[in-house]
Amino acid sequence: MHLLVLAEAFYPETSGGAHVRWRFCQLAVERGHDVTVFTPHEDGLAKSETVDGVEIRRPFSVKPDSVPVYSPLAVVTRITASVLLFVYLCWWLRDRDVDGLHSASHLTHWVGKALSVLYDLPLVSFIGYTPSVEVDPSLSPQLFLERVNFRFFMGETVFCQTPGVKAIIERYTDGTVAVLHGILNQKRITDAVSTADRDQQRADLGVGEEETLLVYVGRLVPVKNPIGAVEVLSELSSEYALAIVGDGDEREAVEQAVREYGVENRVQICGALPHEEALATISAADALVLPSHTESYPTVVFEALTLNTAVFVTPVGIVPTIDHPRLHVDSLDEFPRLITETRIESSDGLDTGTLERFSMERYTNGLLDAFERLHRNEKHSRGSLS
């Protein structure tokens, strides 16, 4: 099949959504499909290139780099860019054979739906980050846009990440809606574990055999609440240590919190690390601490569970819907008690069952199966009409 993918975030960006789209396209190409991606242009990137067999086209910029993505100006420029993209794709599709459309971003859903109707193409939609993941979302431009998408611009098949969001989408669309997990890069995790030396990693972090190593992995920004990890450590006994992996605007505030809580000799701030090194650090730790205020589908949680590392996380995004013996979900205030009372049994190696359950291979299978089913149904319908 030749698949046309529309996404606002894509390679070389490394955010969760961009990683998922990119890995899906890589795997689809590896399985013999042709994939063309349309995504916004950014300074320093080629207008058109082919990477790992994936054709990437970036015809337009959608907003100035300095403008926040949901600011009023950015919303106007992104909507304008989506109109330009629609016109451009109408021209681009005039002499090309495409077997299916995949839309994975708020402002590409209407483009995908319009093209699917105009060119009679199967459309598979994916809802990743969504305001609906919150228990009681407040009225906002994002929520309004999302509900318009749910009502008018979903494909014949729609995938999302939580049962709650699935129930909401089903109230608005007649399409088939299903929960689809998958965010882990199976090869990258397997390779990282095969070369990791847990004892050496702990020694490099200055952690003794009798100490319990906690790790925070993520951007040092307010929404991720890295200072919360320091606060938790300060309420634990001296046998606990903390490694902080990541960088960002809050680094100075984190360093100040370490000094104010008097835990300088128990905290190692590692800065941003390559993904393989971050995975090795998670594997060496006894537990991951994630004190975020907001998340959708936190990759690091599933990486830690796959690496046999216990996870203590606030009830954000999809996390409360996941059942796993090493996953502990509670408010941040309860973390010290929960960590102290939990028998943490981390170990080397992989939890292959968890890796398979949340792998990008599983995600890719779900999407490709949906395309193939829709493609068969379309051929059958055309055969019946003839």
Molecular structure report:
This protein is an alpha/beta fold and 386 residues long. The model has no long low-confidence stretch (mean pLDDT 90). The chain has helices spanning 16-30, 72-92, 109-119, 141-152, 163-172, 186-195, 198-204, 226-234, 251-260, 275-284, 299-306, 335-341, 352-357, 360-385, and strands at 2-6, 34-38, 48-51, 54-57, 100-103, 123-126, 157-160, 176-179, 212-217, 240-245, 267-271, 287-290, 310-313, 327-329. The protein folds into 2 domains: 2-182 and 360-385, Glycogen Phosphorylase B (Rossmann fold, 3-Layer(aba) Sandwich); 186-357, 3-Layer(aba) Sandwich (Rossmann fold), CATH 3.40.50. It is built from 14 helices and 14 strands. Helix 1 crosses helix 14 (360-385), helix 6 crosses helix 10 (275-284) and helix 7 crosses helix 10. Helices cover 42% and strands 16% of the residues. Strands 3-4-2-1-5-6-7-8 form an 8-stranded mixed sheet, sandwiched between helices.
Brief digest:
The chain has 386 residues and is an alpha/beta fold. It is built from 14 helices and 14 strands. The chain has helices at residues 16-30, 72-92, 109-119, 141-152, 163-172, 186-195, 198-204, 226-234, 251-260, 275-284, 299-306, 335-341, 352-357, 360-385; strands at 2-6, 34-38, 48-51, 54-57, 100-103, 123-126, 157-160, 176-179, 212-217, 240-245, 267-271, 287-290, 310-313, 327-329.
